[in-house]
Amino acid sequence: MRHIITFLFIVNFLSQSTIAAEGGYSNYIPGSYGDFGMALAPTETWTLRNDTYYYDASTSKTVQGGNLATDLDLQFLMNFTTLLYKPEFKIFGAQYTTGIFVPFVNLDTEASLEVKEWNQVLNSKDSASGLGDVSLIPFALFWNKGNFHSSFAHYIIIPSGDYDVNNSINSGLNYWSFDTNFAITYLNPETGHDFSFNLGHIYNTENEDTNYQTGQEIHLDLALNQFFSDSFAVGIHGFYLKQVTGDSGSGALLGDFKAEAVGVGPALLWNTKISNQYVSFIAKWLHEVNAENRLRGEHLFLSFSVNW
Q: The pTM is what?
């Protein structure tokens, strides 16, 4: 199962347009909520998954650190580790699981900043690296009935990454996010068909250093997969993002904007045994086919997971 990411320097590109969400990104990363068997409970007591995620983005206009940024280019690399613990404990007939998501990021940005205090436009290059915003998973509940699986989970993204309002880029977003998700999977072991979706709602608090509050977001992640054996599967994955409330606060210099985006792409799964330990390798690429008030680009994932 894939989890919300601690923060994101993403959103889909619209030339000649303004950009929703502070900095043009939020705590939603398309494709990070699942790939194969989204709603399946972990098979063992402990699950460790590591993802390497890359995004190269640009936008014509956004707000950074309380200043207007134009012609922004951003290279984003994240490595995040998710650790899940499944005790022998059930709630409402569901298997209980808890966990934590820890990201490390490397960012490079280049933009023209309109600095209000100086009434000047400055060309800015900056970079940031280190711990990002950690995500806690206080609960994830899993039910199963025949070929149907469902889950209900909540994620709390903590502003644990470094943040300085005077920097043009930071490793953290400086606000909390609360993400509630419901997922369903239909998995037929005889035919190998796997149809899954995850529906989530994100509430973002205000960045108190900039008085900017990114609006609430609804996101839908979909997966249509085919298992050809226990060790190999392919799939077509997609996502839809809709910002249902506009950005607000005195720091929202570009006004009450709402983002929307759609993307789709292929995914591969390969299971193998290494030193008597089964390991899953996953590769995924999502292409954004449409976007409003967001960046537009490509999302690349390389991942592995182990259970014990």
A: 0.83
